Amino acid sequence: MWAISIAGESPPHVLTGRIVAEIPHSAVLLEEPNGRQHQLATTKITSRTELSQRFVLFTPEELAADLLQQVPAGFEIAETDHYVLCSNSSSEYVDFCGRLLESVFSQYFRFMSELRISVQQPAQKLPVVIFASAAEFQTFALQQHPEISFADTPGYFSVSDNQTLLLDLTGDRSIRSRANIRRVLAGKPLQVATVVHEAVHQLSFNTGLQVRMADNPLWISEGLAMYFETPSVRSTWLWSRPGLVNPRHQPAFVKLSKGHQVSGGITSIIASDAAFLNASDMAAAYAKAWGLTHYLVRENKTGMQAYFQRIAQRRPMVGLTAEERIQEFQDAFGKSPDEMEEELVSYIRRQRVSR
């Protein structure tokens, strides 16, 4: 356990936690007991002191108290087997979300077991904050990540804070019955998909599949979340299992392939995350990432095992070059992205959107 003083405030701000990683003369990655991680430039550190007490992650009760300190008055805590939920929405809506999250949790571990990919149970219950109104959600998101716009976004996972933030998708705190909540959400499949999508991100970074603050290629991070996200309106919780054909991304991928816009594009999203961060390229990048992930999970399980083993060995705050990313992909899957393009396009064109 360390106490690190940060310059720029009077008195200096002090953070306590464990040092996860350090790059000499550059940066320190500190994790607090609530799971929040801070990447600190060494030039901003005024002092660091090793403490006698052992680092221990918060218990569910401590995590609940910590969450309540971060949100306005009126929020309450609910717990499930694997989550601590902090919300000012109706208890029925929180219960619905909790059950959906637990369903995703169970299916995530089943999926990894079937794929023979090693993952561990999270070290602590996972924190989720649910906001009754869009205004409250946007205010909190702005405070947490002022550099990012979350306009028209019903949820996100914060890697640094280790929290999933969700908006009450019913938009009506007075809706109390599970049947009415389900009816409203059944008409908002993309928003339900967001809940599942962000839950998979949180699981990936808390089960050893991916390393927080490391160079995690967005094509596989987003591709895996999209592989899971497709809703199923006939299911009790409007979602049943991963692997359903995505009604947004499959048609988008097919359109790209017909327009000869896939060629070379797969290599580019593996080599760099730039397309995912550019508004004009983002939709195409997500479609390609979904298609590539779906294809590889179904057609090259051995390669996926090898690739995720490499991803799990990432070091925080250490980047890879474009050449290293491409070589890593080729080592895992036995061929370059260009060499599998014809098979990939043929596979995705054969898929039928799930209903």
Structure described in brief:
By secondary structure, this protein is α+β, with helices and mostly antiparallel strands. 44% of the residues lie in helices and 16% in strands.
Characterization of the model:
- There is one protein chain.
- The chain has 355 residues and is of the alpha+beta class.
- It contains twelve helices and ten strands.
- The chain has three domains: 2-50, SH3 type barrels; 60-209, Glutaredoxin (3-Layer(aba) Sandwich), CATH 3.40.30.160; 249-350, no CATH class.
- The strands form two sheets. A five-stranded antiparallel β-sheet has the order 4-3-2-1-5, with no helix packed on it. Strands 6-7-8-10-9 form a five-stranded mixed β-sheet, with helices on both faces.
- α2 packs across α5 and α7 (249-258) packs across α9.
- It is globular and about 60 Å long.
Spell out the key features of this protein:
355 residues, alpha+beta, SH3 type barrels, Glutaredoxin, 3 domains, five-stranded antiparallel β-sheet, five-stranded mixed β-sheet, 12 helices, globular
Biggest sheet statistics: 5 strands, antiparallel
| Count of DSSP H/I helices | 12
The CATH class of the largest domain turns out to be: Alpha Beta
Question: Beta-strand percentage?
Answer: 15-25%
**Could you please say which CATH topology of the largest domain applies here?**
Glutaredoxin
